[in-house]
Amino acid sequence: MRVVAVTNQKGGSGKTTAAVNLAAALAERGSSVLLLDLDPQASASLWYGVPDSGRGLFDALTDNGTLASAVRETSTPGVELVPAGSWLVGVEKALSGEVGAEAILRRRLAALPDRWDYVLLDCPPALGVLTVGALTAAQELLVPVEAHVMALAGLAQLLQTVEVVRERLNGGLVLRGLLASRVDGRTRHSLEVVEDLRERFGELVFQTVIHENVALAEAFSFGLPITAYKSRSRGAQDFRALADELEKRRS
Questions:
Q1: What is the number of other CB atoms lying within 10 angstroms of the CB of residue 129?
Q2: How many Å apart are CA 71 and CA 80, to the nearest integer?
Q3: What confidence tens digit (pLDDT) does each residue in 141-192 have?
Q4: What angle do CA 210, 5, 79 make, to 5 degrees?
């Protein structure tokens, strides 16, 4: 079971878009995928049309609840979801005084049945308790980076946090790759940012890029991943390529 955290503390990076559609593309290839929506905004849950889970995930992280009891089916074959609920807004406060709070999610994941090939963690756009918990629990890290120069500044802060987590909490965490997202091939700026990423980080940058695509925005409105909404669109092709590349990037 590969546990992959999808994170970037900067909003607008395409983080949830990546988590939702990568899950569907992996499932399309025959993998079984569990997606954990750790973002109180619940965008991944809304995308899959799964209703508010109430206290489910909150209880799993703050009390004696289990993740298994919070798993919900989706309309996408091969993809199951632990949805974010309205209670998740208060989880940072609830865990702030908890000793070892950053390790709770790792323990809860370890208690899950081993029936998924991938567990994807859609993290909040902030470096708080939930994100640190996800980095502590994950084996691999995928970082979507918006193709804009301002996104590169925030990336440095995230990578520093990853190093601290490796040193103190999770020595096995592997930065599996940086994903250039929201790439507009019509603008010179967007292409220059991608080039800059490749010059700075080399093979850490996925060869696949996620292009700016109106079908991706429309897919959210219909509660479907891009592979189901417009299977032949460029967005669907991008995420199939990403799934293929991630499959090949194994330790």
A1: 21
A2: 7
A3: 999 998 887 777 778 888 898 999 999 999 999 999 999 998 877 778 888 9
A4: 75
Which of 116, 149, 154 is closest to 30 using CA atoms?
116
pLDDT mean over 106-111: 95
Amino acid at the residue 137: A
Instruction: Tell me how far apart the alpha carbons of residues 66 and 76 are, in angstroms, rounded to a whole number.
Output: 23
The domain containing residue 72 runs over which residues?
2-248
- Pairing label, strands 2-6, 79-82: unpaired
Query: Dihedral sign, CA of 160, 162, 166, 172?
Result: negative
Amino acid in position 174: V
* Nearest alpha-carbon partner for 121 in 82, 167, 90: 82
CA pair distance 168, 157, nearest whole angstrom: 17
The burial of 141, by beta-carbon neighbours within 10 Å (0-12 exposed, 13-18 middle, 19 or more buried), is given as buried
Rounded Cα–Cα distance for residues 238 and 230 (Å): 12
SS3 18: helix
Q: What is the enclosing helix (H) or strand (E) of 37?
A: strand 33-37
Q: How many domains does the chain have?
A: 1
- The residues, any chain, with a CB within 8 Å of residue 101's CB and separated by 6 or more, are 95, 129, 133
> Residue type for 202, please?
G
DSSP string computed for 173-211:
-EEEEEEEESB-TT-HHHHHHHHHHHHHHGGGB-S---B
CATH of the domain at 223: 3.40.50.300
Task: Yes or no: say if 162 and 173 are a contact pair by the CB < 8 Å rule.
Answer: yes
φ/ψ (deg, to 5) at 30? 110, 0
Q: What is the pTM of this model?
A: 0.94
